[in-house]
Amino acid sequence: MIFLLLLFAVPALAQVQFTDQTAAAGLTLKNTFGGLEKKYIVEAHGSGAGFFDYDSDGDLDLYVVNGATFETYKQKSGPGDVLYRNEGEGKFADVTAAAGVGDPGWGTGCAAGDIDNDGDADLLVTNYGSNTLYSNGAKVNLPTSPPTPGWPATNSAPVPPSSTTTTTAIWTFTWPTT
Q1: How confident is the model at residue 21 (pLDDT cuts 50, 70, 90)?
Q2: CB neighbour list of residue 119: distance below 8 Å, 6 or more residues apart
Q3: pLDDT in tens, 119-176
Q4: Taking a C-beta distance cutoff of 8 angstroms, is the pair 70, 32 a contact?
Q5: How confident is the model at residue 177 (pLDDT cuts 50, 70, 90)?
Q6: Among 5, 65, 153, 175, which one has the highest count of C-beta atoms within 10 angstroms of its own C-beta?
Q7: Mean pLDDT over residues 6-21, rounded?
Q8: Which strands make up the sheet holding 122-128, listed edge to edge?
Q9: Which secondary-structure segment (H or E) carries 61?
Q10: How many CB atoms within 10 Å of residue 1?
Q11: pLDDT number for residue 149
Q12: pLDDT at site 40
């Protein structure tokens, strides 16, 4: 019986075709990771992306981490990461500038989570070099270590690298909030 089902299913599967829908969806980022000639391992791998609901509307939005070349990395003028707001029905809008999250570093990955218990997803971007932590709404101080009194609130803060390069981030914060 299973053989007969497979026999009829194979021709139907062979007719499936995929088409590139990125431009129609509004996803226009050109991904960069190193120059044309790959001399170093950091140039040989791409960067990451993360789906999370940054605006709390119930739709998964997309943050795409972008790399750089050694020239743009040194000048801190890389193409930058991009935040796309999910508009529904397969469409996205670039809201990077309005959200202030276009990190021009050499991005390698990202992770989202609510580090300050305010109900909004916050974003950690891992980079070749210093990482960046974005607090959604900037309602609390941004820690690079457990919070200390007097550190001014801001939209983003550099997170010192623990090594020369990082690849991605998975995190859990249990710091008390006041």
Answers
A1: very high
A2: 56
A3: 889 899 988 888 888 888 754 333 343 333 333 334 455 554 444 444 444 444 444 5
A4: no
A5: low
A6: 65
A7: 72
A8: 106-113, 122-128, 131-134, 156-159
A9: strand 61-64
A10: 5
A11: 35
A12: 81
Phi, psi dihedral angles at 22 (to 5 degrees): -65, -45
The DSSP secondary structure of 74-102, one letter per residue, reads HHT-----EEEEEEETTEEEE-HHHHT--
* Entry field: residues in the chain: 178
- Is residue 69 within 8 Å of residue 51, measured between CB atoms? no
Token pair of 93, please?
Answer: 């809008």
Q: Are 99 and 125 in contact (CB under 8 A)?
A: no
Kind plus residue range of the DSSP H or E element containing 7? helix 2-14
3 state SS of 127 = strand
Q: For tokens 């194979």, name the residue.
A: 10
3-class state of residue 23 by DSSP: helix
Tokens for 73, please give them: 């990395």
User: Is 22's pLDDT higher than 90?
Assistant: yes
Cα 122 to Cα 137: distance, rounded to the nearest angstrom: 9
